[in-house]
């Protein structure tokens, strides 16, 4: 008789459930899921292919001051992603770069770009001459204007005598 009570309890639990409708199939949602999976796979493939498009460029390993000559031990090779909007100096151009002057101070771990180098007249100043830049406010420059790369000579001036009594009145000169 104990088995009869068990069956009655089992039938009662099944009787309390509400009937459910068969599950609706949504083909549009399934198609959207497939399209999203394909788009993700294509995006991943594109990123992997583009990351492989790398070029060898020149990287600075030692500080080179503005106007100093770049030596072979100042630079090394580095690999970066190709970007047509950046004018990288390619590692294949190393021989053309060594011996030229830096246009700006080059710090370690910097990738060399063309704007950092001096070419032309600024690169070949004679020994004993330096190039300097001067900020001049509007209206404070010569009336004839300034010429680019105009040579200016610096003349040594005698030191100014300190203010005070003249040398004739000092006890040592009496």
Structure notes:
With 174 residues, the protein is α+β, with helices and mostly antiparallel strands. The chain contains 3 helices and 2 strands. The chain has a two-stranded antiparallel ribbon. The longest helix is centred in the first third of the chain and has 25 residues, at 27-51. The radius of gyration is 40 Å and the shape is elongated. The protein starts with a helix and ends in a 77-residue tail after the last helix. 8% of the residues are buried.
Summarize the structure.
The chain is of the alpha+beta class. Helix content is 25%, strand content 8%.
Key terms:
174 residues; two-stranded antiparallel sheet; single chain; alpha+beta; Type Iii Antifreeze Protein Isoform Hplc 12
Topology (SSEs and partners):
Layout: H1 2-16, H2 27-51, E1 54-60, E2 75-81, H3 94-97
Total strands: 2
Helix content: 25-40%
What structural class do you assign from the helix and strand content? alpha+beta
CATH class of one domain, named Alpha Beta
Radius of gyration: 40 Å
**What is the CATH superfamily of one domain?**
Antifreeze-like/N-acetylneuraminic acid synthase C-terminal domain
Count the DSSP helices: 3
Largest sheet: 2 strands, antiparallel
CATH architecture of one domain: Alpha-Beta Complex
Q: Tell me what portion of residues adopts beta-strand conformation.
A: 5-15%
Shape designation: elongated
Averaged pLDDT:
76
| Widest sheet, order of strands | 1-2
């Amino acid at each position: 008789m104990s088995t009869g009570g068990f069956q009655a309890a089992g039938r009662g639990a099944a009787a309390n459930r509400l009937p459910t409708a068969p599950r609706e199939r949504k083909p549009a949602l399934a198609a959207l899921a497939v399209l999203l999976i394909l788009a993700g796979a294509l995006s991943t493939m594109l990123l992997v292919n583009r990351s492989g498009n790398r070029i060898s460029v020149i990287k600075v390993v030692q500080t080179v001051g503005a106007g100093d000559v770049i030596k072979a031990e100042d630079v090394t090779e580095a690999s970066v992603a190709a970007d047509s909007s950046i004018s990288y100096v390619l590692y294949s151009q190393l021989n053309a770069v060594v011996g030229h002057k830096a246009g700006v101070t080059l710090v370690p771990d910097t990738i060399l770009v063309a704007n950092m180098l001096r070419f032309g007249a600024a690169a070949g100043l004679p020994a004993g001459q330096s190039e300097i830049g001067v900020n001049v406010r509007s209206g404070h420059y010569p009336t004839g204007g300034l010429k680019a790369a105009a040579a200016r000579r610096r003349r040594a001036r005698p030191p100014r005598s300190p203010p005070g009594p003249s040398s004739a009145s000092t006890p040592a000169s009496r």
